[in-house]
Write a structure and sequence with these properties.
Layout: H1 2-20, E1 35-36, E2 39-40, E3 55-57, E4 63-64, H2 74-88, E5 93-99, H3 106-126, E6 134-140, H4 151-157, E7 159-165
Parallel strand pairs: 5-6
Antiparallel strand pairs: 1-2, 3-7, 4-7, 5-7
Length: about 170
């Protein structure tokens, strides 16, 4: 039994090492770091890479948030439920990117974006998805979907987006 476990461990280690040396498309991560749409992902506290493979965005609509809020509203909960159902029928992992509008300091917005991503992560876990399959990142006010001013633009930018890791 110990030989079988050791053999599995060696195979898994070689697989991880092989995948770590693979290049991913520049849009989603390069040899020099992890990127989504050309914007570098913030460094993780544990020094690990966010992306273990190619990431595809846009398959699911973003979850929108109220001003200075991390609460997933009733109108947005269905979006998370759709993602959870898809993950139950898939082997893909997911990365959740949290965003804010431009109001607030960069540091505050980075933290708020992370709390938004974590709120969506916790909702997915509550719906039966393993936390090991979910990664989070915050872009704060970077990468706005609407760079105009005013409430409509700010509301569009307060979101969490999903990326499937294949």
């Amino acid at each position: 039994m110990k030989t079988l476990r050791f053999g599995n461990f060696v195979c898994l280690t070689l697989l991880v090492a092989g995948l770590a040396s693979c290049k991913t498309r520049d849009q989603f991560g390069g040899a020099d770091g992890d990127y989504i749409n050309g914007v570098p992902l913030p460094e993780r506290r544990d020094g690990a890479s966010y992306l273990g493979g190619n990431v595809s965005k846009g398959q699911y609509p973003p979850v929108q948030f109220g001003f200075d809020s991390v609460e997933i509203g009733a109108s947005e909960a269905g979006k998370v439920e759709t993602v959870a159902q898809a993950m139950k029928n898939s082997r893909s992992d997911i990365i959740i990117a949290g965003f804010t509008d431009e109001r607030g300091t960069e540091e505050y917005n980075r933290g708020l974006g992370e709390r938004r991503a974590q709120a969506v992560r916790e909702k997915l876990i509550g719906l039966g998805i393993s936390g090991a399959r979910i990664q989070t990142v915050s872009f704060g006010e970077e990468m706005p979907v609407d760079s105009g001013g005013g409430e409509a633009a700010w509301a569009a930018n307060r979101r969490a987006e999903f990326g499937l890791i294949r």
